[in-house]
Design goal:
This protein is an all-alpha fold. The protein has one domain. The protein has one helix and no strands.
């Protein structure tokens, strides 16, 4: 599964976006791990 968030940052959003991106990716992977494990059970 691939999630995309498209948009243009400006001003404070440029700094906040660069800082927040890794944290958001990590949180999304963590949030999607549980449903994935449930769906892949035999």
């Amino acid at each position: 599964m691939t999630l995309h968030n498209d948009g243009r940052h400006s001003g404070f959003g440029v700094l906040a976006g660069a800082t927040m991106a890794p944290m958001v990716r990590r949180a999304m992977r963590k949030d999607l791990a549980k449903p994935k494990s449930v769906l892949e059970q035999p």
